Structure formats: C-alpha cells, structure tokens
Amino acid sequence: MLTVWGRRDAFNVQKVLWFIGELGLEHRHIPAGGDHGGLDDPAFRAMNPHGRVPVIDDGGTVVWESHTILRYLAARYGKDAYWSQDPGERSRAERWMDWSGTTLQPDFLTGVFWGFYRTPAEQRDTAAVAQKLARCAAHMRLLDAELATRPWLGGDRFGLADIPAGTNLFRYFGIPIERPPVPHVEDWYRRLQERPAYREHVMLPFDHMAGRLSY
Q1: How far is the C-alpha of 113 from the C-alpha of 129, rounded, in Å?
Q2: Helix (H), strand (E) at residue 28
Q3: Residue 22 banded pLDDT, cuts 50, 70, 90
Q4: Strand partners for 96
Q5: Over the stretch 107-118, which tens digit does the pLDDT of each residue have?
Q6: How many Cβ atoms sit within 10 Å of the Cβ of residue 114?
Q7: What's the whole-model pTM score?
Q8: For residue 59, what are the CA distances in angstroms to 2, 56, 62, 63, 209?
Q9: DSSP 195
Q10: CA pair distance 184, 173, nearest whole angstrom
Q11: Residue 7 — very low, low, confident or very high, per pLDDT cuts 50/70/90?
Q12: Average pLDDT of span 22-50
C-alpha cells in the first residue's frame, strides 16, 4: 500500500495528500514531524537522509521532495489525465510547478505566512514582510493575467500545474493581509474549493499556528 509520512497541516504534505485524493489512491498516512517527531529516527533517515517530510513508500519505491512525489504519482497513476507523454505538453504543468516552488512559495509561505502570521508581532521584521507582500501581490497579478484566458493554470482542465500554486490560496486568502484585486485568481480558488480532495486535505484550520514559530 502507498504510505505517506508527514503532518497533515504541513504545506508540502498537503500538496501530496491532495493529489493522492484526486487520484483516488488507497493509502496509509503516518503522522511525522513537528509534535509527532520521528524525523531523526534511523528508519526514517534511511528513507530520507534530509529528515524532512513528505516521504512516500509505494510498494518499496521511496520518494521524497513534494514536487518529485507529485511527478512520480502523476507518471505512475495519472498518465492520461495528469502526465502527458509529450514533453512539450508536460512542460506546461512542470514550469508552473517549478515557478511555484522557487518563486511563489518562498515569498508567500516563508516571507509572509511565516514572517507575518506565524511570527509574534513584537518579533516581526516589518520591512521584510512588506517587501514579500509586494512580491506576492505581483505574483497574484501575474496569475490573474494568466487565468484570464483559461480556467486552470495548465489549460482547459484541472491538472498538475494547479496543485503547488493552488495549495497557497487557502492560507493566502485566509490571513489578514492586504491583497490586490485578482478576480480570475478568486474564480480559480472557488473552483478549487469545489473539489472534495482540496477541501479534505488543504482547507484545514491553521489558527493554531498564529504567532507560533515552533512546529
């Protein structure tokens, strides 16, 4: 059976569990990291020497790094719907995945969600947060322009491109920050909220993280 290690409230774990839900795969989830611990256990380090989640074991194939896991699952279980055999077509999803991982997520999750929401007010670097908020606003405007021409980030149907970027939206729209008007992103977010797997694995309460720097 497919086994997933990680905390359900961990951002990168949510991407993986969401996609597993979209694929309808039977799986076992083992809480790990944060209050659950276990990341320094020799057995876990044997799977992932970096000691981080998510990690999956799919019948003996161990994979770590969230976007690599997404690609693996798409190639193994979602070839028709999520993993084109044409490299050019497949790149439409992969470029947005990489952009989300290298640009959007660091600015929002690290810069804003951690720098603002998870950091106690007296410890915040307000100048750094303001800079990251401005960068996030620019990213959202870019996404808004892209989504003006199509319903999903990768094209005419939901796909792998939507998962890394779309995971940000629940927290982005759920914390008290200034946001630019982005009607096409908001429409995209509404469509994501209609998906049962998104509601189950991404739309989880996170108020316990407010002002809390520890996991």
Answers
A1: 9
A2: strand 27-30
A3: very high
A4: none
A5: 999 999 999 999
A6: 15
A7: 0.96
A8: 6, 9, 8, 11, 34
A9: S
A10: 14
A11: very high
A12: 96
Yes or no: say if 40 and 51 are a contact pair by the CB < 8 Å rule: yes
Question: Which residue has tokens 């008007």?
Answer: 181
What letter represents residue 147's amino acid?
L
One-letter amino acid of 156: D
Going by C-alpha positions, the residue among 142, 156, 136, 25 that lies closest to residue 93 is: 156
Transcribe 77-143 into DSSP letters. H-HHHH--SSHHHHHHHHHHHHHIIIIIHIIIIIIIIIIIISS-GGG--HHHHHHHHHHHHHHHHHH
Residue 215 has a pLDDT of 72
Alpha carbons 39 and 46: distance in angstroms, whole number:
10
d(CA 177, CA 60): 44
The string over 136-157, giving b where at least 16 C-beta atoms fall within 10 Å of a residue's C-beta and e elsewhere, is: bbebbeebbeebeeeebbbeee
Q: 3-class DSSP state for residue 58?
A: strand
The pLDDT tens digits for 125-184 are: 999 999 999 999 999 999 999 999 999 999 999 999 999 999 999 999 999 999 999 999
What Rg, from alpha-carbon coordinates, does the chain have?
17
User: Euclidean distance between the first and final Cα of the chain, in Å?
Assistant: 28
Q: Which of 61, 56, 67 is nearest to 11 (CA)?
A: 67
% residues pLDDT > 70 (the chain): 100
Helix (H, G, I), strand (E, B) or coil at 27: strand
